[in-house]
Design a protein that fits this description.
alpha/beta; 19 helices; five-stranded mixed sheet; single chain; 563 residues
Length: 563
């Protein structure tokens, strides 16, 4: 009998195992109710993250500080979190009606509240994915903070190097720093972080805001200060999960409120029995695609429509955006600002009130003569929240004792994703969603195809897409495995499998909606995590995302108007 050959684990297998271990650990810590990220209870999380070395966190496993990753993380966490020893994750527990001012991170829509000098509360209303997201970011932040303490501490009594004393003096100074004082502080900080003066100067400009011009120096100081307190005084930072959050999580509480609010509006406007096309997208592309030619008639007659979209997306052109919104509201659009805690706003378009002769999207005669459908646009969900919201939306509604099934004709998902071949701004058309860490796969007939986007000078890729547990946990080895294996993966995102799971359950199993409901999925590339300098941490898409966003939106609308 042949001897069994024992293969060494590949880096991709080790990484996959590290991700699985992280998620099991995070669920365990959540059930436990609290943990200390830099203590024994946080050890598995730290070790797994350092083994994984995700692309988004750059040089986390090296001695030098990671600056791009720090900016990415700090923009997704509440301002001032670096100063807090106690971080409390809560459900929506009424802080919105208190004296506490909500702090909303610039790159993540979540309400956070600074309770006192030591405590930050973060509201979790978007499901487990939000908890995973926050805990991995916090782990990165605290690992980086201990790098700082190791570089500045001289002995176990708390004596520090001269650079730290000078940084402390600059940060705690009440007066505004002069250019000379700023450059002196940057010099000391560069030495502390193991980075060059040039790197720190560039990073300082990226971190700087109007209100906090010295934000980078402030963050580095407080991260280091709390890490020093942990090392010298054993005053460990603590993450807690409120009892109400632990009780509510997984019960679709916010998703159910969200869906009920929407159905109440549909009933009130007598739209419940009309055909409905659901689109998950941003809050501007569908509205602008339909109403820009109506509201900006002169501009659209002189310029290419994609140049108009680009102009609309510029920060300084708020007046143009307001014109389009006004035209939309006058022609049957209803805007529902979220009040459920999901942070998912909604637009409802009654196509019976739109003058299609003034738009530039082709509409066939059959559509014009049909019972005009409703276009329902919902803002992006976050990870597992996609299942919660769509699952609740597609359920029948009871009106005066009668069960009414919504007439859902199609569900279209347009979003941004990481691409594994190609670059920022390219388009991906999935044929299946595969759920990371499992063999769960959701093949479907996509109404969109590569041919639909021919002739627009944008690269198009077709194949499977991986729905990851968190985009911030992917590294090159895992991504290369996805790309080179027979799974034929072209990109990664966080919601696709959750959307499709809910759609399949409602249409094929529960009988809530038409079993032949049409689905459309298309994503534009926000980053290429396999390319150095093209990860999410390297910055946003800028205007390069405008064309693919509107190409996808227009194609979805063309199919709806010409079915």
């Amino acid at each position: 009998m042949r001897k069994t050959k024992h293969h060494e684990r590949t880096r991709a297998q080790e990484s996959s195992n590290a991700i699985e271990k992280m998620y099991i650990t995070m669920r365990h810590l959540f059930n436990r109710g609290f943990y200390k990220p830099m203590g024994v209870s946080g050890e598995t999380l730290r070790e797994s993250l350092l083994l994984l070395r995700p692309e988004i966190y750059g040089s986390i496993a090296e001695q030098k500080a990671e600056l791009e990753g720090l900016l990415y993380v700090i923009d997704r966490l509440p301002e001032g979190i670096e100063e807090c020893t106690f971080i409390n994750l809560t459900s929506d527990e009424g802080y919105g009606s208190s004296h506490f001012e909500p702090i909303i991170p610039p790159k993540r829509r979540r309400n956070c509240y600074r309770i006192d000098n030591e405590q930050m509360n973060i509201e979790i209303t978007r499901g487990r994915s939000e908890i995973y997201d926050i805990l991995t970011h916090l782990t990165f932040l605290f690992v980086e903070s201990h790098k700082i303490s190791k570089r500045v501490l001289i002995d176990d009594k708390g004596a520090t190097i001269r650079d730290w004393i000078k940084l402390e003096k600059a940060v705690l100074s009440k007066k505004k720093l002069t250019q000379q004082e700023r450059e002196i502080a940057i010099t000391h900080t560069a030495n502390i972080l193991g980075r060059t003066f040039e790197e720190l100067t560039n990073a300082h400009a990226e971190f700087s805001t109007k209100i906090k011009p010295e934000r980078l120096l402030h963050i580095i100081y407080w991260l280091g200060k709390l890490a020093i307190e942990e090392v010298i005084n054993n005053n460990k930072r603590t993450v807690t999960f409120s009892p109400v959050l632990r009780e509510r999580l997984g019960h679709h509480i916010h998703g159910e409120i969200w869906a009920d609010n929407i159905k109440a509006v549909l009933f009130e406007k007598k739209l419940l029995h009309r055909p409905i096309h659901v689109i998950s997208a941003n809050m501007h592309s569908v509205m602008n695609s339909i109403f820009a030619p109506i509201a900006l008639k002169t501009m659209t007659s002189k310029k290419d429509i994609f140049e108009v979209y680009e102009a609309i997306s510029q920060n300084e052109n708020e007046a143009l955006r307001n014109k389009i919104t006004k035209a939309a509201l006058q022609s049957g659009m209803t805007y529902i600002k979220d009040a459920s805690g999901t942070n998912i706003d909604v637009q409802i378009f009654d196509t019976g009130k739109i003058d299609f002769s003034k738009t530039d999207i082709e509409v066939n005669q059959k559509f014009m003569e049909s019972e005009k459908p409703v276009i329902f646009v919902m803002d992006y969900a976050f990870g597992e929240q996609a299942y919660e919201t769509i699952d609740e939306l597609l359920k029948p509604i009871k009106v005066n004792g009668e069960k009414i099934h919504l007439n859902i004709e199609s569900v279209s998902i347009m979003g941004k994703a990481g691409i594994l071949e190609g670059g920022k701004g390219d388009i991906m058309i999935p044929s299946a969603h595969i759920f990371e860490g499992t063999a769960d796969n959701y093949p479907f007939k996509n109404e969109l195809c590569k041919k639909d986007f021919d002739g627009h000078d944008v690269s198009i890729y077709e194949g499977s897409m991986i729905t990851v547990l968190g985009t911030s946990l992917q590294n090159k080895e895992i991504l290369k495995f996805f790309f080179n294996s027979t799974w034929n993966v072209i990109g990664l995102e966080m919601e696709g499998a959750h959307y499709q799971k809910a759609i399949q359950a409602a249409s094929k199993v529960r009988g809530s909606i038409n079993p032949d409901v049409k689905v459309r999925y298309a994503y534009y590339a926000s980053d290429n995590p396999l390319e150095t300098g093209s990860t999410l941490a390297s910055g946003g898409l800028g205007t390069s995302g405008v064309k693919p966003t509107y190409l996808i939106t227009r194609k979805i609308l063309q199919q709806i108007f010409n079915t």
